[in-house]
Design a protein that fits this description.
Largest sheet: 6 strands, mixed
Order of helices and strands: EEEEEHEEHEEHEHEEEHHHEHEEHH
CATH superfamily of one domain: ATPase, nucleotide binding domain
Radius of gyration: 21 Å
CATH architecture of one domain: 2-Layer Sandwich
Number of strands: 16
CATH class of one domain: Alpha Beta
Protein name: Pilus assembly protein PilM
CATH topology of one domain: Nucleotidyltransferase, domain 5
Organism: Pseudoduganella armeniaca
Distance between the termini: 23 Å
Length: about 350
Amino acid sequence: MPDLKALFGGAAPPLVGLDISSTCVRLVELADAGKDGLRLERYASEALPRGAVTDGNIENLDQVVDAVRRVVKKSGTRARNVALGMPPAAVITKKIILPAGMSEEQLEVQVESEASQYIPFALDEVSLDFDVIGPVASSEDDIEVMLAAARREKVEDRVAVAEASGLKASVMDIESYAARAALDRLVAQAPGAGAGQVIALFQMGAQITQCSMMADGVTVYEKEQPFGGNALTQDIVRAYGLAYEEAEARKKTGDLPDSYPTDILAPFLESAALEVTRAIQFFFTSTPYTKIDQIHLAGGCALVPGLLDIIASRTRIPTAIVAPFQGMKLAGTVREQQLRSDAPAYLVACGLALRRFG
């Protein structure tokens, strides 16, 4: 059976999480700190040229490889095993019910047979993996199995990036799964560990906002929306005649004309809040759920000034910016103050790095 590089399986240490987004490459390495839990050993990022990755597709392999090599060198990691992420849109997932008691080999044959019903490609064109979730509550003779499949070429592109950078792709995960794994760790630290709660995660990147709703820790809804921080950068470009790279840099430093907060930033914040409220309303109308207890914001766009407050105000739901390394020890080389401003963009990379611990 074609293998999706242990999409669901564990990985032997050492391992780093490597998140390749449309704008940059982010690396995270975690270590076991014994009774103190986990330690953030190192993290780093490198910007990607525009167009190197588009809609999750690697368009310029050389540029991505160069960025990966730089981020590995910058981080100082000696690990060569990496966990990589696939965009959710590039992976087909399906829960299927199979008879219990089958051997691993029998399961593989049965899963491949079932997969042909759900995958709109020839099986020799896809990488396929599965994970046994557990017994079906209503039938002790059956088990629930998660099937995952991706176009082989999409998987091979990321493996090729790793290999050309002197790394080994040990784990291939789904980016939204990795993000939720990192969030699950945070929720587990909260009072009640999220029991009975519906939690919304909005990962606001450069081009896409990924929305995930979890009830009692189980994902019950997912949706991608074509909205992100690039819209704000483009507005700055048009308003002030700046090059895109300069506009992006000034957006982060706030070095913009006095008219920026009212003329450019405020309309963007309104649009962002509208996207979030629409997603929530669609969630309510398309599922049995009628409440959300907590909103978490992540991604490079999460720290745009005013975004947290306007979303909390418009939704009237408690809203927080994700701190994926909360509760971890920090290695001596990690600057805590800088980490506070960087952390929300590292949710996926953190989740990928957690795969080191199974």
